[in-house]
Amino acid sequence: MATPTTPTPAPTPKTNRLGLQVLDYRGGKTTLCAGCGHNAISERIIDAMYEMGIQPERVMKLSGIGCSSKSPAYFMNRSHSFNSVHGRMPSVATGALLANRTMRGLGVSGDGDTASIGFGQFAHLMRRNLPLIYIIENNGVYGLTKGQFSATADIGSSLKTGVLNDLPPIDTCLMAIELGATFVARSFSGDKKQLLAMLKAALAHNGTVVLDVISPCVTFNDHEGSTKSYKYMQAHEEAISEAGFVPHFEDISVEYDAGTTYDVEMHDGSHLHLRKMHEDYNPTDRIVAVKALMEANARGEVLTGVFYLEPKKPSFTDLLNMVPEPLATLPQSVTRPSQQVLEEVMESLR
Ligand SMILES: Cc1ncc(C[n+]2csc(CCOP(=O)(O)OP(=O)(O)O)c2C)c(N)n1
Ligand code: SF4
Ligand SMILES: [Mg+2]
Predict the structure, then answer these.
(1) Would you say residue 1 has pLDDT above 70?
(2) What beta strand segments (E) does the chain contain?
(3) Taking the complete model, does pTM exceed 0.85, yes or no?
(4) Which protein residues are within 6 Å of ligand 1, measured from CB?
């Protein structure tokens, strides 16, 4: 007679500091092409939000129009989401975050949505230092409308049809640094480790984060002649720094050499360690950052890493002295002048 075996208990699912599982951060099934860089970015957002223990309901996902802008549907189903008009995510984000400063803003846009039709909105957003993580899923083309060049396409790169791009590109990181963003970085959708560290650091920042992520479009821009393909990135990616992130809630002390590594204390007390890979790297000096980017662009290299960080600058909501409560839940006694005040105003106008 066989001896009865006791069933092995199911393993307890792993949870984060809020007691949530990674499943709690997932979204709908993607409808993007298999292999699209945007899918890998969604995965890293899920990992970063889970590992940082962010309450999904406290997050607003904002986007414009494009394959990239569709991707918020594929992560964090429990969060709020607003898919705006093409290139208009910044103004929607500004309104929403000013109306409710208890929420975290995560914007997802494309290179067309940001640097072509939305360029004016992007520029004015940068000046304000709104507390928003702005991810540009950069593939150099308008993927959703079948692969025309966008304004980030490199001069001399070609479409699948052989058409050459003869206009110079807009470097969104250079623009963001010049116009006032306080956390500016570039990564590659295929670089899991770097992208995850950057996203976690972005969640610890109070101000505008611009994270330009080269995200190949496998259907329209992954061929020979493209400078946004997987192959091109593997051959031309050059990291300016290596990022290590220690969240404020983990008691880990990291040994690092102050001569080779910058230790930046973030707004929430987390630490970002940036190990220099370039001689003159200094993430707190915007002139150095601009020079490094311009030189790399001239050499045909795609520089990645955290280029510029200013963790102490007041955000737009701090500057405007907004009340901490969401405007929607303020009582009318606070949002409307009383009858007596209105009568006094009328009286003063007689
Ligand atoms: C006002 C307006 N103009 C044009 C379009 C057509 N359109 C839809 S998506 C898109 C470009 C999207 O490119 P990008 O932001 O790079 O996203 P991707 O699809 O490459 O991820 C364009 C031009 C539109 N939807 N609305
Ligand atoms: S068309 Fe390009 S950008 Fe759009 S989902 Fe497919 S691979 Fe991604
Ligand atoms: Mg694009």
Answers:
(1) no
(2) 59-63, 80-83, 104-110, 132-138, 141-142, 148-149, 183-188, 209-214, 237-239, 241-246, 261-265, 271-276, 302-309
(3) yes
(4) 65-68, 86, 110-113, 117, 137, 139, 141-145, 150
Within 10 A of 299 (CB to CB), how many other CB atoms are there?
10
Long-range contacts of 41-46 (CB under 8 A, 24+ apart): 41/71, 41/108, 41/135, 41/137, 41/189, 41/195, 41/213, 41/215, 42/71, 42/74, 42/75, 43/75, 44/192, 44/195, 44/196, 44/199, 45/75, 45/76, 45/106, 45/135, 45/199, 46/22, 46/75, 46/76
Q: Residue 247: what residue type?
A: P
Mutate to test the pocket of ligand 1, among 30, 62, 86 (most ligand atoms within 8 A of CB): 86
Closest to 299 in 3D by CA, of 291, 287, 309, 307: 291
243-298 pLDDT, tens per residue? 999 999 998 777 778 788 999 999 999 999 999 998 889 999 999 999 999 999 99
Q: Whose CA is nearest to atom 9 of ligand 1?
A: 66
Distance CA 134, CA 161 (A): 32
Q: Whose CA is nearest to atom 2 of ligand 2?
A: 217
For the cut 90, the answer to whether the pLDDT of residue 57 exceeds it is: yes
Residue 118 Cα to ligand 1 middle (Å) = 10
Taking the CA of 116 as reference, the closest ligand is: 1
CA 261: distance to chain centroid? 24
pLDDT at 2: 63
Tens of pLDDT, residue by residue over 155-176, are: 999 999 999 999 999 999 999 9
